[in-house]
Amino acid sequence: MTEKKEEIDRATKEKLKPKQFVKNPINGTKFTLLISSAKGGVGKSTVAVNLAFALQNLGLKIGILDADVYGPSLPKLIGLNEKPKSEDGKALIPLEKYKAQCMSMGFLVEEQTPMIWRGPMVISALKTMTQKVLWKDLDIIVIDMPPGTGDTQLTFAQEVKVDGAIIISTPQDLALLDVKRGIQMFDKTGVKTLGLIDNMSFFKGDDGKEYKIFGESGVEKTAKEFNKDFLGSIPLSQDLRNSADKGNPLTHAEPNHEVSVIFKSIAKKIKDSYL
């Protein structure tokens, strides 16, 4: 009876033991950077693309992976709507725009097609874009993640070898609650959070004053609370929005614009510390 109980206890402990995940690297790149937001609508995709081109302006060879399967933004943000090709019927060749290698679910489906997919289908698509795309000789790949901290994000963090993540947020309290969940998710999955970026931090009025309509210093305070780096504040900018609508990111179109200079400062922190 005692032996049977010990056997059951061992089996129970084995079942409850945390699962060990094999993290697969993305081939063809030296550094994999996730751009994440625990909440939608904070400008994550715009930040991801402009940060990528800011890194390119520093001399790095970049790739951009739009992993936001439900709401792919990359085709619009860089003005690219071609279909990727495959030489062997298995691996996809990334498209290229502005000397950046690019891949998005938006390249594979029609623009108006809704992505009514359950979790396993989304995860399968993400694995295809990370493991079956022929990225080539990249210094860094910037991955625009789906918003949130659900099953898709968790599986990605557990199964893909990631060198670091940056979390984007606006300063209001509601967004910051989700940021804290995002930080804890990355900590628990062994993904290093390189820092936080405060987006839509302020806008400049015609009088030259800065107006902080979403609150002040919330993202910076959250970074300090969790002992993470605060990478910088990006203002609300009509030029940033206009360049996105035109399919030519501001950091590429106008690298000396005052907002592009902020992105360059953030990119330099990343390059100097990790690349």
What do these coordinates show?
The radius of gyration is 20 Å and the shape is globular. Strand 6 (164-169), helix 6 and strand 7 form a beta-alpha-beta unit. With 275 residues, the protein is an alpha/beta fold. The strands form two sheets. An eight-stranded mixed sheet has the order 3-4-2-5-1-6-7-10, with helices on both faces. The chain has a single domain (29-274), classed as P-loop containing nucleotide triphosphate hydrolases (Rossmann fold, 3-Layer(aba) Sandwich). The protein is built from ten helices and ten strands. The mean pLDDT is 87. It is 40% helix and 16% strand.
Notable features of this structure?
275 residues, alpha/beta, Rossmann fold, eight-stranded mixed β-sheet, two-stranded antiparallel sheet, 10 strands, 40% helix
Percentage of residues in helical conformation: 40-55%
Q: Give the averaged pLDDT, no decimals.
A: 87
Low-confidence stretches: none
Question: How many β-strand stretches?
Answer: 10
Major sheet: 8 strands, mixed
Number of domains: 1
**How many helices?**
10
CATH homologous superfamily designation: P-loop containing nucleotide triphosphate hydrolases
Short synopsis of the structure:
By secondary structure, this protein is α/β, with parallel strands linked by helices. It has 10 helices and 10 strands. Strand 3 and strand 4 (100-104) form a beta hairpin.
